[in-house]
Write a structure and sequence with these properties.
The chain is an all-alpha fold. The protein contains 13 helices and two strands. The chain has a two-stranded antiparallel sheet with strand order 1-2.
Length: about 280
């Protein structure tokens, strides 16, 4: 019975994995096709549904060396913003989570409850207030509008707090007896032990900013400062949609995320296991 259950489990997992990877394979295949071939084999199940008849790199060449939409500049912009936001999120949210987990101060439970209640508010609801705030500060059309509002992650605080709460108080007390200050204890003892959940939060933050579309579209007007997802959407206009170029651009934009996940997936899974399911 256990063997049958194991076979059934792995069969279901394999089917789900195949279903998940089919759109990615079709995207890569479409990026290697000329436009007139793109939808020619999409309505039937055959070998050429995923294998181009006339493979070409012309789509990638036109995307990368497009003078109107300098795609490499957009990638650099997005890497810069996503990297800065990720570092700031790790710094700010780790300190906040540690305070909620281990420090004692008046109203801590109420403040934490208010933070958690913010998780149920859709991001679209705060678009207009945030835009007006950025306009008031004079940060529109600058990277400040992309970085500063993204520094705080309520989910990140919750994720890290779950892990920090599991650290024995005796370890912190021993460090205090040895003369270590609270910042030193945090940087030398707490953070090194929190590598898996920190990497988990870093991956989720980087991915969220890499895929961000609506907020950069609203606050950034200068094309030289625009983000990659807005640049991909620029291949669609009133004149038509160049799906071959969109698929090529999407394939390029997927590569950094895949590389990050391949190198850090062990920590990501460990961080979710250690932090997300603990009470």
């Amino acid at each position: 019975m256990n063997r049958f259950a194991s076979i059934a489990k792995y069969t279901v997992m394999t089917v789900l994995a195949v279903i998940s990877i089919i759109p990615i394979l079709w995207m890569i295949s479409g990026s290697l096709r000329p436009y007139e071939e793109l939808f020619k084999y999409s309505s039937s199940l055959n070998f050429h549904l995923f294998v181009p008849v006339r493979p070409t790199l012309a789509n990638f060449k036109e995307v990368i060396f497009n003078e109107r939409n300098p795609f490499l500049r957009y990638i650099t912009n997005t890497l810069f913003v996503a990297g800065i936001v990720t570092l700031l999120v790790l710094l700010v949210n780790s300190m906040s989570a540690f305070a909620f987990a281990k420090l004692r101060f008046r109203g801590k439970a109420m403040v934490f409850a208010l933070f958690m209640s913010a998780m149920i508010i859709p991001g679209e609801v705060t678009l207009v207030p945030n835009y007006l705030l950025m306009n008031y500060f004079g940060w529109l059309n600058s990277y400040k509008a992309l970085v500063i509002p993204s520094m705080l992650s309520v989910f990140g605080i919750f994720l890290l707090r779950q892990f920090f709460a599991e650290i024995p108080d005796e370890i912190l007390e021993a460090a205090k007896i040895d003369g270590a200050s609270m910042p030193r204890t945090f940087s030398r003892i707490v953070l090194p032990a929190a590598v898996p959940p920190m990497i988990t939060l870093a991956l989720m933050t980087f991915l969220g900013n890499w895929d961000s579309y609506l907020w950069p579209l609203i606050v950034i007007n200068d094309e030289k400062k625009q983000m990659i997802q807005v640049a991909i959407a620029a291949f669609s206009s009133v004149e038509g949609t160049d799906w071959s170029k969109i698929l090529a651009a999407s394939t390029i934009s997927t590569v950094p995320i895949l590389i990050l996940f391949l190198f850090l997936q062990r920590y990501y899974i460990q961080g979710i296991t250690m932090s997300g399911v603990k009470g």
